[in-house]
Design brief:
The structure holds two protein chains of two kinds. Chain A is built from 20 helices and nine strands. Helices cover 73% and strands 0% of the residues of chain B. Chain B has 13 helices and no strands. Classes of the chains: A alpha+beta, B mainly alpha.
Chain lengths: 473, 311
């Protein structure tokens, strides 16, 4: 008996050592500093769509209307360039799991992938992403019609980052090209406001009072306002962060210490939590983008403070019970009392990025510039509702303006805030951890915890996280 | 003459040739080979996980180093870890206690020869046939404070706006309720099978001697059923300690940190924050806890088996 135990333990130890040895074959060189790779975008000669004809590329796409429009038009790309495009569409819940595994394996089987701006802070530092400015500036590889300057500079800039934790987006390498984006604004029931003679709120205190007034108005059971509340970074990112930034509060200082517990941050958070407690949805802590949007579209909430396109999708044909009845209107997000100057908003950009390990980078770049070209963007916005387009030319297009005229306030709100639209978070690689803890803290505050104490506890937690990760300066 | 040592070989057979001898020597090893391969298939990922938990392996880093017990040191000093311990233990004890009591009661009730009992035996297993995630989503809809049917009926008896899983105070009981609904049939079914396999003789003797129902239950049923109850307890306890589906589908760990148990912490750390080694350390600690508990319960199960046959 004892002998068998010893043999068993011995075998286990051997396997442990074997398992450990296999792990250490993971690459020990840092791809970001790998100078043996051929220089990207070294092509010369005249621009020709057919220059990479015969090649085949593989693209990862998130299940989203933007991706569906690209897939629909792929035959046009394939006949124009002779490049075969294979793709995988993955639901958003699992999409980034797949992207992370594909990129970290270093296999190069994926050439291009959809990404958001926050993911750049995770994927770019380890060298998984290919910087794109060499491709953009190479006239042999970029069509003269593509027109880099047609993109809103702050939208394109939100996908530029210097890789320095704590440094704002806008400088450094260009990591991705925008497909389309969302700003965060206020959407409200025009018909209810007119019926009860309610003014559109401009400040956060006004929003709170309006939400309270509308809550259960006429015994209808309607919630005053719908906002996200699940234990997820997506709860902080839209309406909350937009209002937080408009209050002049900052998430981190330049020493990468958490400053969300400042007086401005506490004041805004306190009012936000009060609004939810007194006029928000009853199951707020389980609300994602989906619940918030469908509550508004189903007439269960009088206002919605979230992505402008969320209200847009409720208003298209078949989108919700309110669709096409001219009952939804858009307005800029709330500001603190006495605020003057540019109203801003946080944003989310679905964009296309290139795998640094791709072996067909030129072909991939041809695909990426086609998918973000003027024609694709314009037709997508007109035919498939792929809003908000990132190109100025689309917003100035007469047909697009006519289409938006059916959405009261949409165009005006966009024009009002566009210059203040950027990523208001401080880029750092622990973004998802810190922002998820922030959402959990917000849930505690709505659950009854004192705001100042909760934000102080959050500050301690996040600072310790940054310390452990060696990020605190 | 050496043949006589092996009773399977007839006495009048000639001495066995060397070829057959070798085959007989290797036969036991070939028979256990599939099981052995399966064990390797289970042990290899497990030991890889143990190894990774001693490194700083992260999916956002192209290289990693051996850091010994640093992950474990950080975890044991992290308040989130101790919160996870509290949540995991409270969930497991709450769910298992209710399931065992309810399951035993249901098994006793269904162990009768009444036509209703016989019919309900088949209905009993319905919740078990649904995947826990689907069951949770059904309950999530029923528990919705705004459109859920539970609050509709509760409002009729004067309880307005019960928050269910939307509030820190009631989230735990909501997920425990879903767990109980899905897994009580498991306990009930196992105990029912146990009840039906108990020997009749002691019960006839007790009836003849005039023992009450409670006396019969206390001195006959309970000790004889104890091995089955220990098996149920082991299964349910281990399952509840590592529960992920129900909690993630219901609230994703919220509100706040009220439902962040071990499995959820491991998932968030490993797959959302991409610190795979840190998430694995959580899982290894959970494995250690489950292993110790299962060893203790196994020992009790052995004792209960001996007691059940009167030793």
């Amino acid at each position: 008996m004892k002998g068998r135990r010893i043999i068993g333990l011995g075998l286990a130890l051997i396997m442990l050592v074997l398992a450990g040895c296999s792990g250490s074959t993971v690459t020990k060189t840092d791809p970001a500093k790998d100078t043996k790779q051929a220089p990207a975008a070294a092509a010369t000669g005249e621009f020709d769509w057919k220059r990479e004809s015969g090649k085949s590329i593989h693209v990862l796409l998130n299940k989203h209307p933007y991706a569906e429009w690209v897939i629909k038009n792929l035959p046009q790309f394939e006949s124009m360039t002779g490049i075969k495009v294979t793709y995988e569409v993955i639901p958003e819940q699992n999409y980034f799991d797949k992207v992370t595994v594909s990129l970290s394996s270093g296999s190069g089987t994926v050439d291009a992938f959809m990404t958001g701006a926050y993911q750049v802070w995770q994927y770019a530092p380890p060298g998984y992403m290919q910087p794109l400015e060499d491709f953009i500036n190479n006239k042999s590889l970029t069509s003269p019609d593509w027109d880099f300057n047609d993109f809103y500079p702050n939208i394109m800039g939100a996908l530029r980052w210097s890789l320095k934790a704590g440094e704002a987006v806008g400088t450094g390498h260009q990591w991705a090209i925008p497909m389309a984006f969302e700003t965060n604004v206020l959407m409200y029931r025009k018909d209810l406001f007119e019926k009860h003679n309610i003014k559109v709120p401009k400040t956060m205190p006004e929003l709170y009072e309006t939400a309270k007034k509308l809550n259960n108005i006429d015994g209808s059971g309607i919630a005053g306002i719908a906002v996200r509340g699940s234990r997820n970074w997506g709860t902080i990112h839209p309406g909350y962060m937009t209002t937080f930034a408009n209050y002049g509060a900052k998430d981190f200082n330049d020493k990468l210490e958490f400053t969300g517990g400042s007086d401005k941050g506490v004041a805004m958070t306190d009012l936000w939590a009060k609004m939810i407690k007194e006029a928000g949805p009853k199951a707020w802590s389980q609300y994602t983008w989906y619940e918030a949007g469908s509550d508004f579209g189903a007439g269960k909430a009088a206002m919605l403070l979230d992505a402008d396109i969320l209200g847009y999708f409720q208003d298209v044909e078949g989108g919700s019970p309110l669709a096409g009845q001219n009952k939804i209107a858009w307005a800029p997000p709330p500001v603190p009392e006495g605020h003057s100057g540019q109203v801003g908003a946080n944003l989310w950009i679905w964009s296309l990025a290139m795998n640094s390990k791709s072996t067909k980078k030129d072909a991939t770049w041809l695909f990426m510039q086609w998918a973000t070209s003027k024609e694709i963007d314009l037709q997508g916005a007109l035919q498939a509702g792929t809003v908000d387009p990132a190109r100025k030319s689309v917003w100035e297009n007469a047909d697009f303006k006519k289409k938006l005229a059916t959405k009261p306030g949409y165009y005006e709100t966009f024009q009002t805030i566009i210059n203040g639209v950027t990523i208001h978070f401080t880029p750092q690689p622990k973004f998802f951890e810190t922002t998820t803890e922030w959402a959990a803290t917000l849930q505690d505050i709505v659950g009854g915890k004192d705001t100042k104490q909760a934000m102080a506890d959050l500050t301690k937690k996040i600072n310790s996280m940054m310390d452990q990760a060696g990020l605190k300066k | 003459m050496s043949n006589h040592a092996d009773p399977t070989i007839p006495l009048n057979m000639p001495a066995t040739p060397r070829k057959v001898n070798r085959w007989r020597k290797w036969r036991p090893y070939l028979i256990i080979a599939p099981a052995f391969l399966l064990t390797i298939g289970i042990m290899y990922p497990f030991l890889t996980a143990v190894w990774y938990s001693f490194t700083n392996y992260s999916l956002t880093r192209p290289t990693f180093e051996f850091i010994a017990f640093k992950n474990y040191r950080i975890i044991l000093q992290d308040p989130s870890f101790w919160n996870a311990v509290s949540v995991t233990v409270r969930y497991a004890l709450g769910a298992v206690a209710v399931e065992m009591l309810l399951g035993l009661g249901i098994a006793l009730l269904l162990n009768q020869e009444h036509w209703l009992a016989k019919a309900l035996r088949y209905v009993l297993i319905f919740p078990l046939m649904i995947s826990p995630v689907i069951g949770t989503l059904i309950w999530k809809l029923m528990m919705s404070p705004s459109v859920g049917i539970l609050n509709y009926y509760l409002s009729k008896i004067g309880i307005k706006d019960f928050p269910w899983a939307a509030s820190q105070k009631t989230a735990m009981m909501s997920v425990v309720l879903v767990d109980v609904w899905i897994f009580t049939p498991f306990v009930g079914l196992l105990l029912l099978a146990g009840l039906r396999s108990l020997p009749r003789a002691p019960y006839e003797a007790a009836t003849l001697d005039g023992g009450s129902a409670w006396f019969t239950f206390k001195t006959l049923t309970l000790p004889m059923l104890m091995p089955y109850m220990m098996v149920c307890l082991m299964f349910r306890l281990i399952d509840s300690l590592k529960m992920f589906d129900i909690i993630y589908a219901m609230t994703g760990g919220g509100p706040g940190d009220s439902l962040m148990n071990f499995s959820l912490q491991a998932y968030f750390n490993g797959f959302l924050y991409l610190n795979l080694a840190y998430g694995l350390a959580y899982m290894i600690i959970l494995w250690l806890i489950v292993y110790i508990i299962s060893q203790v319960l196994s020992a009790y199960w052995g004792k209960a088996q001996k007691r059940a046959v009167g030793q």
